[in-house]
Amino acid sequence: MAAERPRIPLAPALIGLGSLVVLLVIASVAWGRTGRLGMTEATRGILAALGLVEDDGLAAAKASLRLWQALTTAGVGAAMALAGALLQGIFRNGLAAPSIIGVTGGASLGAAGAVLVLGGYAPTFVSSGAQGHAHLAVAAASFIGALGVTALIVSLATRAGRISVPTLLLAGIAVNACCGGLLALIQAITQQDYEIARAIFLWTFGSLEDKAPVHAASIGGALLAALLAIPFLATELDLFAGGEDDARGLGVRPERTKALAIIVATLLAAVSVAVAGQIVFVGLVVPHLARILFGRSHRRLLPLVLLSGAVFLLGAEWAQTALLGDRSLRPGVLMSLIGGPFFLSLLVSRRGELRGW
Amino acid sequence: MVSLLATEGLSLGYADEDAVVEGLDFELRPGELVALIGPNGAGKSTVLRAFSGALVPRAGRVLVGGEPLARLPARERARRVAHLPQEPRGLGDLLVADFVAGGRYAHRGRFGGDPRGAAVCREALERVGLSGERDRLLFELSGGQQQRALLARALAQEAPALLVDEPTSSLDARHQIATFALLRELADGGRGVLAVTHDLNLASQFADRLLLLEAGRLRAQGSPEEVLRREVLGPIYGDDLLIGEAPSGAAGGRRPWVLAWRGRTGDAAR
Amino acid sequence: MRLFVWMFALGVTGAVVALVLGALRAERRPPTLPRVEAEGAARRVISSDGVTLEFARPPRLILPTNASVVDLLDALVGPERIAALPEQAFRWSRLARDRAGYEKHPVFAQYEAETVLDLAPDLVIASAFNNPDTHARLRERGVAVLRLDVRNSLDDVMKALRMLGSLLGVEERAETVCAEIEARRERLCADAADLDGITAVSYSNVGSGGWSFGADSTIDEVFRLAGLRNAAARGGRTGSITMSFEQLVDLDPDLVVMGGDEGQSTSAEVLRGEAALDGLRARRRDAFVILPPELASTSSQEMLTAAEFLVGEVRRLREAGRIERRPGDGR
Q1: What is the ipTM of this complex?
Q2: C114 vs A62: CB contact, 8 Å cut-off?
């Protein structure tokens, strides 16, 4: 992979992406499925949604719906992208992404399992903000599922203390297939129960519409935790580029760095899945583009990837809402359409490297 | 004087496999350049890995500055022992300055405080003659420059003990000599340097002591004159070796000089 | 490391077993029909998902989210009280045949809060298939959402019609509709009396495996209304089930019922093109019935229309000698 000298300095990049996120949120509020709201209406609606002014008019109601949806979308994009960047850093390979090595599959399985085991009646349980505890329980199960899958594939791919990336990717394929099979099994068992079938369908293709403050808050919380972990990870991941032994020689504790990065990435992916279902490839595409634009140093990359992910998913969703309106695709479908060819082109461009596998 | 690095009855191995190194006793003191030599697969690199805690000994122990390695925090160990890998694998797309700054990791506080860092890095780059290349990407440098960048990072680490893994394997003759001259200079400045190398003549010219490892066991150690003898090397490298004296004017004086005599192809392959 | 892998494999196996047991244990809840309490003009109704809705007077403008509810509302209140139509209504409800009166209605492709807010209905009637997030967002913003779960039987459809009649203040109309349904059912019953003993299987296959419906499904109810026996319900199979060629040959029904447009059906093409099905009586005699889409998957009073259609088709097939009563069958 051709390395690029960082083209855009940190501060302007942070400010630029940050304002882009804000602009896109405003644009998403102003321009939604049922047409446009004026700037004053949109602003007033946002203030009303935040409880700053009283307004129960139609425009305010729409604005608040769009606001929470936009914030959830931005959060999910940021979380998936950051999870991807962390996994790629720790495995020192740009092909490692939550959806490819099976982390999102594990998270979906965990979430689906929670609904079943809790005797659950999925929708009220999983998605509605009314029952916050249930929402957290499903998020926790999804985290455990994702962590379990990650632990499994990492242990399968580790030999003599070194991680083999080909094994990692192949194990990811196998684990993904297993998760898919188990999800199908759950679906087959529960197909009479439309509620569970429906919830599993949501996870499979993702759903970002009609989100509540609790969804935005869940993903925001996960992102906050990740932000707090960045100072303990960024420099270490940079030093990881030369391999674990090299990093160890410089004073890094690779086991701790690996564990922290994997736990944070898994948390991000799991909460994303619990909130919005499987939206694949964001974690692959965004870190890749961000590295080209901003260079590879994780101290710069991690915060910028977070913002880029928000811009990417929010921008894509906003664009398809503006263009397709009522006929918008499920977000997971849209991301597959973008990410699938991207993944293939990555593989093709690295054919030389792959030949050695 | 307390040794910088020492091993006592050290045995090492990977997972379920046979031991790679067995019963190694060795010591590295300040001011000396020690060359670790031996045929391929002798366990030389494995020994280096043990010094960074990457391998937990099966038996025996590693001492760093007199203290057991196992009890040292990672950063403290990195402040005492620096590693120089063979090549900057995977690090090619870093700026030289950023790469060298990596050596300061063990000196930085959790929130980045390292008041001397910038000065130390600048000095390290100057020392290896790369001051002008700070803002280039590592992979844009020549092989010899990359080697020196690695050395600069190790210098930035300010560790009294320096471990070097085959520093000359990808260098031309001129750079091979320059690299060893620099290692010699560092040792003369008070550091202890342990260098793994296949080049017996460079080892002979620049090292104070040679350690000869074969099949995980220490076969000989001592001055070049003591180790580079037909009786010692013959059983290990084959008896088609010619051993003489270095030509006059060589850096280390008229020390032993080893040539492989390729007349007998059958043995040369050993 | 190896130990860890084994422990993990054990854990996964355990989790799978727990999942399967949990799924089997979590028996299907029968759908609960909403209950209405009327007091003067005030209405109080408990939605199928447990939420209580209160109205000072019967809600006027209603938004149906799926085709079957469109059928129910069409019969009860007609176009003027329907706020908008889901797109699928034009394929899966009575409106597929005749959209008179609905030409000017707004149409929406997705049930989603913003769209609904724009249409400003007094009441949304949704199903278990709809996104519960959307119910929650709408209720937060003061839009009444009633989830209406109907069991797959005509009796339950009538209960739903009466419930809606009471909720929407059209009790008398509901009674009239139900009386019409009862009359049609009796007529059909008399009409189909001589068909008893004829076996049928519903079948769908677009090239990726065959599916059918066992007991406790709308097609099962349609068969029952038409006096046919659902062979796929043999052995206690319920709901949506897979149906291999082998199973189909084994059941060997007199009649295979498939969905399709204007008499064209992919499933029928699959059955006609499969050499292994030579032994299938219905194929040898070409005893296939193609139900139009709005009759193939309805869970409204249109089940009755589907049954009437089936009886007509079966009668035609029998007159053409393509269905014969076998000895020992029926009475």
Answers
A1: 0.85
A2: yes
